[in-house]
Amino acid sequence: MKYYWTIVFVVILLPATVLYSQSKILQVGEELVYTVSFGFIKLGEVKFNLNSSYYENNRKYFTAKAEMKSFEGVPFLNVRYIFESIIREEKGRVLSEKFHSSEFKDENSGQRVILRTDYEFDYFSDNDTGYIKVKRYRDNGRDKILEVDKTETFEKGIEFQDGLSVIYLARINSFKKERSKKVNIYINEKQSYVAYSFNYNRDAVSIDLFDYDMAAIKIDGKADFVGVLGLTGEFEGWLSDDEARVPLKARFNIILGSVTLELTSYKKTGWKPPKFNE
Known about the structure:
This protein is mainly beta and 278 residues long. Helix content is 12%, strand content 56%.
């Protein structure tokens, strides 16, 4: 009988634990800044912000933003992207509602060119299918040209992530003790997926920001798409082994080879990464 009550207690406690931890992850005001390095060469930085939350039609939404830019003086590299996502949170999970990406380029003419792509996901269609509305514009300061305008369908019941929301989903999923996940993702105007798994054995991670080894859990995965700078294939990362699951460090493959992302600054109320104790 005592084992029965133990099982009941765990079943009741687990959802509450996941939701509590989710509130630590989806903390409005969180800012995480990472330096991207190729060996000893610092290429640029990526900054993530969770800016706001609101309710609409009894559903809760978050707005997130990521900015990616190369450092000045890096040869053959001139990169600036802004990604924005509206994320819906529901019953311990998140999914993408809207996604906007802006790529800034300098053409030979010296004109500043913005390539903007918008995705809007419709999960509530009355039909047996959902819809993804896609538009892509080129804005060179003189003209705004609509290059892509299409609507894709998908089987109703499927939930999609975009290139930004998938990071928050992975952090949340790390509490569910499901060692492997395959997640639907819409990127580059295509339906694709990213697969990842967790190693729940405590790992020690060191970065320049702190003078001690941090306790982390490891995530390994594979991206079945080609992203910014040719990002594709296998990757690995380390999340803080606490309620916040802050990404501390990661390695990805891009066109240059393997690059490392390392947390270099943060704003997060009440958080400090846990120490690793053997």
